Structure prediction request, 496 residues.
Amino acid sequence: MNRRNILKLFAAGMVFSGVVSFQGLAQTLPLPALPIPRKLMPDQGGRIRLKIQVGESLWRGGGTPTWGINGPLLGPTLSLQRGQSVIIDVENALSEDTALHWHGLEIPGVSDGGPQAIIAPGAVWSPEIAVNQPSATCWYHPHPHARTGRHVAMGLGGLLLIEDDLSQELPLPKRWGVDDIPLILQDKRLDGGGRIDYVMDEVNAAVGWFGDLMLANGSPYPRHVAPRGWLRLRILNACNARSLRLAAEDGRPLHVVASDGGFLPKPVDLMDLTIFPAERFEVLIDCSDGRDFDLISLPVRQMGMALPPFDKPLPVLRIQPTAEKGGGSLPSRLADLSAPFVPETVVTRTLRLSMDRRLDMRGMRELMRRYGNQAISGMPMAHMGMDTSEDHVQGQQSQGGHNGMHGDMGQGGMMRHGGMTDPGQEQPFDLWHANFINNQAFIMNNPSFDAKQGQCERWIISGRGDMMMHPFHIHGTQFRILSENGAPPMPHRAGL
Prediction:
């Protein structure tokens, strides 16, 4: 019996009072050490060199072909300073085109690595990046049009840290790989041959691609030996579509100190933390009692996400404090962040996100056919056709970073067939053009509108008319959430 099946059986039998104990499991199974991506800083010439390449990862007892950056999977953590300019040489050693996007940086589009900045096989792309934004935990990942989802699923991505005077002055844990820990979380799905099973069909186009294997920095359920004291986790949800709900299995609180765009005004204490794909949060956990515990993923109410093993609490990372006393502390105050200001004459735009109803219904029907009613567990049928979200956001061009995730019209990738005709429909059903903003599918070189640099705008983001979760992500700027469904945002989502 492999570790995954043992975990499923163990989790099913050890749930009590909403908390799971994995103590016995950790004592009987040797857990691998959490891999720590190395920090990569600019050389003396102000350059960083990255190579996108093929590799292999060992999961479930066999080798799986994967892609990585300067290695077989994921990539190094890039460390930049505010006020610094750097040239990043990105070599594409794959056999197909790709692109690399700096997710969270406020930089011009020519350097940002969107789908227009394709890197051909064997070519090197060398953008110059001038960093002028507050300290934050950002990340980088591929962004070729219609293939972003597959390239991320294959393993491409890494953290990008921005440091400034504030991040150096705050008494937070700062020993990289010791008490300052990167935590890149991803789910994977493998086929019968142990390869990453990424195929674009109506389910993946409608719901998103999700798997049944949970990885932390590329490793299933690893352990981290930490000093006894405060532990800082820089958490990235690098899943293609899966939302995560993280908690400590013994009920100790998570102290959120930063979100996508940088530090919050003060720590926010939570018992569990929901993280959507591509979101980042920095969390401090008190390990001063010296007791081992697990960081776990709790079930979420999201279409297709309530399937085994994610229908039960699932261990993500075991924390094992030592007798060594750790450094750092939890500050009572963090960043000076004023309340959002909306000018009286602000430009207001309404952006409605929607999906072709044929894709909506076909995706849900096929999901239920494959996995049964459990696939829509926790989703009220009365919700069908109702408003799913309405976020009011205020763009702030003067500060860096951004929020959200990439959709690529359903996460991009390979299709089993190029087009389908729905019963009773005369027009072909195209998976690649079935998601819309204001009823318009994405056209690469046809901008929908122009926004003036430096101008504040108020955007109303609304998803109506289908049951699926819609991603929304802005390049090259920051925003503040003014309200969600008419209510103020939660404190840990009120930052940049």
Q: What stands out?
A: The chain has eight helices and 28 strands.
